[in-house]
Fold each of these.
Amino acid sequence: MATTTADISNGLCFKMEGHVWKVMEFLHVKPGKGPAFVRTKLKNLNNGKIVDHTFNSGVKIDVVRIETREYQFLYKDEAGFNFMNLEDFEQIGIEEKMISAPQFLKEGMKCIVLFNTEDDTPMSCDLPNFIECEIVYTEPGLKGDTATNAMKPAKLDCGVEIRVPLFINEKDWVKVDTTTGQYHERIKK
């Protein structure tokens, strides 16, 4: 399905140079002199690379129809990451480069998988924006260490090390932003 750059929006997927791309960010620019253009940040769904690309206004793009489905992460093996469709229990394998933040995956986590509807192949897998993790190791916090912006390293139950405020202790639960890999807040469990 062909359309033009005027229809570009976040999440739009299209074919260009033999690859399928997803629009992460875009900005329509109309300078005082010269023609209008569209500045974009694109993610290559074939290899996971993110690039900046500028389109002249009105250029035709070949839109790819995609479908999102909820899948549950099961396990990782030498073939890749294995997920199960929660509706029909079909299992699929997804390569690590297609997953937005594979280091944060935990068994049972629900993720959104994008499929190319032309050939029903998975294109990418997005984790939830925020996940809840338990701190399995960090140096002990001290009473009164809440007013400063000082941070210390902490290891999460999924194996990832992040930086947390000084008042966070082992066995505390925290909310982590999977897009940045940073601590967001402490939560009560």
Amino acid sequence: MSKSVVIVGASMGGLRAAEALRNNGFEGQITVIGEEIHAPYNRPPLSKEVLAKEVTHDAVAFKLRTQVEDVIWHLGDPATSVDLETQVVKTNSGKTFEYDGLVIASGLRPRVLNLPNGKLPGRHTVRTLDDAIGLRADLVPGAKVVVAGAGFIGCEVAATARGLGCEVTNVAIDSFPMIRPLGETLAAELQRRHESHGVHFRLGHGIRDLAGTDSFTGVILDDGELLEATVLVEAISSHCNIEWLANTNLDISNGVLTDSALRAITTDGDPVNAVYVVGDLARFANPLFDDEPRRIEHWNIPTETGKRVGAVLSAYLSQADNFAELAALPFTPLPTFWSDQYDMKIQGFGMPGLANRYELVAGELTDELVMAYFRNDILIGVVGIGMTAEVMKYRKQLLST
């Protein structure tokens, strides 16, 4: 009898896993369950160039390749539970899906501020296509925008909003924008560049509440300062979409713990051969850096994990002789991220956030540059603004360490 795979999550990771299953010879039924009504699309551009222009599904949709033409897309109906013993996934509508292999690709959702006066209109997040469409409608010239959070998404939204003629203030508890992955020196320089474009910063502060009664008129900071605003964009962090796994014995303490094969691990420390994890939820150790399992929320991870799962899961379902050998292979993807802010093309590789030392190795701090990041004198990351050829040299070094 033909085997079947259920993939919970219809974004990039779920799509790449489906493609990889087919590429590795799996011929059984593949069903992808998605919370959104939209077919898979690319999320990173939502806070960058797509938000600055016209936000449409066509602008960000992935082209569905021929190998996934027969995949069943069950969209707009999220998974609500799974029984690992009977191997059945249940959705919000009450539908059930049996599987021989399960891929967990349900991803993240934005965390929002818990505010006493938080029900006023004008609050936005930027995670989904519908989020971006709603925000784009409010980013009119002259709009007063407060961005909560100074990570990459918060800074990308700030840059985009300034380009659309909005007044922008960025509020964050951090001492500098993007400091965690970039370090103080480069973070301070990027703050200077944002300020040169007219962005205001209130760093070292949080938002205590919203001002207004029937409509949103501003935000109140933790020191009592009132910032007038008509739009609030919340880019503070994310929650893992793991509630549907609550009744399992999987380790979901931070995403879903996996082994090197990306098999889900139970709270007893045992891998589940039929259950795999891709994308932002996968918490795995990467021997390129150390043996500490981590979730990595970078652009290339859904693709890399999807390919890995497709290869291992197809071998498991076909009872291939090399399954155990394949599952034991180390998994060493090189994290990759990028960000467009104004005319800056920021590109990074590795795990610079783990560094205890960094240095400027090419260019000038106020112009195009390359910053290398080290942990105990071992290169573990590189970030460049422009200077792509130089950045790629350090990328090669990272792969050879």
Amino acid sequence: MPVNKNALLRYKTIDNCLRNTGRRWTLDNLIDACSDALNEFTGKDELVSKRTIQLDIQKMRSDELGYNAPIEVYDNKYYRYSEPNYSITNTPVSESDLKQMREAVGVLKQLSGFSGFSGMEDVVGRLEDHISSVRHERKPAIWFESNERLKGLNFITPLYKAIIAKQPVILTYQSFKSLLPNTHAFSPYILKEYRNRWFVFGRGPRDKYVVNLALDRIVDLRAAADESFMEDSSFDPETYFKDMIGVTKIPGTMDRETEVRFWASAPQVPYIETKPLHRSQMVIERNEDGSAIFQITVCLNYELEKSLLEFAEGIKVLKPKSLVSKIHRRLKSACLMYEH
């Protein structure tokens, strides 16, 4: 039987609680935990009823959802798993759920051929392989890079909902340069992933331009019921990200399109050609020794510098002069670290 999102969130919350054996869990404790989880998910301040949690525990104990959770009551008051290593996340996916996932993948495969859904092939492939591996109990054939210790992923859903609803949020944020966190209102416009890190773009009341915040630096987030959403009609994601590598763009200093040219050694050329640094990349000149000169048109930022520095001696920046000087200084500083 399909489970709605709120019920599934309650089951996962109860499961997380009962797995935490360092605390004793009463029914009231479970009600509070589920209410907090739902409030964070929906943005609504509502208390889950006692009857709802009792029914959730009953369903988790039964075979209805395939959990058969060994939930027991001890001292006539506290709940726990009789099997300390049990978790509903370890139970196999039901055939009903697999059928729904296969149907969803089927729809996504049809849409992936359309321009508005370009770039979905890797997502569809990953989903299809995961469903197949679960169904046939085999090892996955596709393995994607992931970071299980990455922080801030729990903020993706509430930020996504805030973006769709055009609802400002109250953020408590602490950058790497700040000694203390700062709390302020923020109107989110779009989420972006870059190299396994997530960022939200938007504006706060004091921001003159669109800024980006790393989700792993967010300390706390909640709905801003008394704040107005700050619209920005000039912000268009396609235009904003078109000339950018990474996530950094500072108006007035780093937002101008600049022609960047660099020489690449023969061994590096095929890697750069098959995985372009930017969509604007083109070959300006090919040399007899197999080396080549490339050009990209981008704004100058920290992520561009990191992308170029990854090739070390394999490339040489030719223009603009400001970038040549900066890369030279950074490589020289790196060399000095190894000379002492």
